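Quarterly update, task 2.4: manganese (II) ion-bound model.
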Amino acid sequence: MTLRKDWWAYSSGCPHLFEASKNAAGGRVGRRIIICDGAESARLWSRIGTDELEELTWIPREGESRARPSGFKILQGGLDEDALAKLEPNDDDEFALVSDDGPWTRLAVRKIRKVDEDASILVLSDTLTEDDLPDHPSLRRTGWKTLIRDDINEEFDHLANLQRVVMIRELLGPRERIGILVQPDPDPDGIASAYALRALLGRKRTTAPLISFGDVQRPENQALCDAIGIEVRVITPEEINEFDGLVLVDVQPNVFGDNLPDRLRNIDVVIDHHPERAGYTATIRDIRTSYGATSTIFTEYLRATNTEINPRLATALLYGIKSDTQYLGRETSERDMLAFAHLHETHSPALLRRIERPALPISGLHALGRALAKSDVRDGIHILVLGRVREDVIPQVADMALQAEGAEWAVAVGTVGRNLVFSVRNVGYVRAAGEVVKAVVEGLGVGGGHRSMAKGIIPLKAFREVYGRADRAQVRSALYDAFIRAIHRSGD
Ligand SMILES: [Mn+2]
């Protein structure tokens, strides 16, 4: 039996290590160069307080006392490229201009661009609007007198994300056909992220198709594609050469095996949250291992660029975060929470329901009816024996079975092909479901999972060899005994 790494999960997640943050928005390397247009704005800024790697400068207005606002240095030479060049800005540095003065701000942007053409610039102003400001791709504006330190940091995070998107757009803009590659049998996080990238690039499926080496298989992932209207095109490794732009989303090339085609060793962009892998080059890489979902990165991109997030896109990304983090439970960062909250405002609950509750076949409901007639909860274990059913019915029944009064464990078991397949759920504060299932199938089949959800497969043949028959009563009592033993097994 060959199994994918997360084959047991119902809501398909992608397990990955939880590492320290080291990315554009998190582990800052550059300085922030703050330039205030006079003593008043400088004083207001010093009240907000200063952060690491912030260089505070001000330029006195005409006739203004040159008394130094605390923490500030005067920008010697005024608003001039020589003065700015003395600050020795490098590529990682970011600028902030604090001013309500239109001509001053426009001049400042021009001068900064002379020193660093692609500079990231945050304009903090309560009176100036976007129309008052010069066109510059990496420029953001926000009001500021009501801001506190956290808001300022958030604005700089937006600015860093904006800069990323500007680079990606610059790189991919001239390309004719861009392939957005997700993993084989892509999960919701990959699908939603790829869909968001296309929105960010302002492209259509003809010039930026979502591509994969393997079809979308799970019913709930297919439901996502159907509900949102997303097409994932399955291609062969040779067809990858038809694209003059290649972006990998929620995946890195190592996933595709050891004998990679050249095109997959040299890609244009990778955006992912799995641990960084070697063995390939990418012109732009944005890998944030502290994030619970790639969808969170894309939500930040969309926000930073003020790109409209319509209800369909919001629903797809929200579902991507929800399924990769198991509803903000597992490996979730504050970033995931913030993105989730932002998406929640615009998502469509009706669409989300359609995705999360895939249609059950009537035959599956009949099997459920028969199983319910015989069900009871003993020692906190609720077992439903379904007989022969479509495989996707089993995890849905397990979800439901945990609602039985007194149940700490729910087990739904069905016959699929020549196997007994069972899904397990628990209330979370008991022994980990994955460990228990491993113990239950020991010597009989395969199994594994998370803390609160797991799956096991036992070939009917193996079951009969041990228990004689494989009728419903026997399956129920054998599983019950095995679960009791596994749950109460001492030690590990
Ligand atoms: Mn993911």
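Highlight for this quarter: The chain has three domains: 5-171, 173-355, 362-490.
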